[in-house]
Amino acid sequence: MIGNRITYRMADGVRVPGTWRHAFIRNFDHHLTDLFIYADGLIDCWELVTLEEFEGKLRSGWVATELPEGAEASAFGLARWKFAEPRTWLTPEVLVAEIRDTIDQLNGRPDSTGRCLAAVDAFLADRTEEKRAAARDAYFAIPETQRHYALGDMDRKDWPLQILVAGPGGTTCRRPDEEVTQDQYDWALSYFEERAESRAKARSRVPADGPATAVAPALHLYEGSMPAPPEDPGTRGLRNDYPAPVTVDGTTFPTVAHAYWALSAADPAVREAVAGAETVFAARNLAVAAGRREGWEQARTAVMTHLLRAKYTQHPDLARILLSTDDATLVYDDIDSGFWGDNGGRGRNWTGRLLELVRSELHAARAGCLPGA
Fold first, then answer.
1. What are the tens digits of pLDDT across the range 287-299?
2. What are φ and ψ of residue 134, in 5° steps?
3. How far apart are CA 39 and CA 103, in angstroms?
4. CA distance 239 to 236
5. Does the global pTM surpass 0.70?
6. Residue 2 class from Cβ within 10 Å (0-12 exposed, 13-18 middle, 19+ buried)?
7. How far apart are CA 128 and CA 116, in angstroms?
């Protein structure tokens, strides 16, 4: 299972998602390390190899699943020790099966557990022995180490699944010497029927506080020249360089960008020059050439929030455009800043995030949710 262990590598400029798991590499001694598994099927076991090549590494013992009594082992920069009464749950076959599942998960495909549960659903819809046999085969295709977790039930584990695929008169892995009784089988059928009903209710349940993800599609706020404000700017009006004057502490700036760069400057004379710059580009260059205020990096998100609130309070027409984006994720491009811009997924998109915050405040004010609103 991947859990929260998410990483990536870059290949020809493309980000390839991956994850990792612990393993022992046997290079003279046994070294506790991480196997990195990537969505394109490559595995890093101290070198990038294909799944077929990885199986060769297992056969050669380079990736070790056997831990001999008394063998020397180490974890780099952490400890050294000898194995005493070692036990391992992995075999080469199980490890390869688990890695195949991981590659499926990284690609959003059903893994062996998903395929098994789909086969179970097919059997429950059409209870023939042929469909049961297919479900049983799919169950045994799950790596042995993962079968307990197939149903996500930490109390009963996979016991109902074992009974279902065995059928009356069959035997289970847990009790190979006992035949499944009709009562046990009926209980398993009831378990799966209740499970299906519960899952259907969960899918249809609306969270009390609203959905966890945006309903509206994401909007990309691209950079682009704006010689003069159009009559209907559309989402272009949400850009910080859009010519919408903002007044802050008695000073009026041509744009939010002008105000941001002016307020960043330590010298009051520079702030005045930045405020009067003809273009955003000129304002930025003047501010960059001067010194920043002390602590600016720590204060800049608060300053930008204040400026965005001023813009959309002072320009109701632009506030309506922002509100019209509903709950969409706002992706903001800023070629000069990986902090403020998303920039193809490489930036932090703070402008987009703060626009979403201000939008939420506007919605709250409209709905009368905020005290004093």
1. 999 988 999 999 9
2. -65, -40
3. 5
4. 6
5. no
6. middle
7. 16
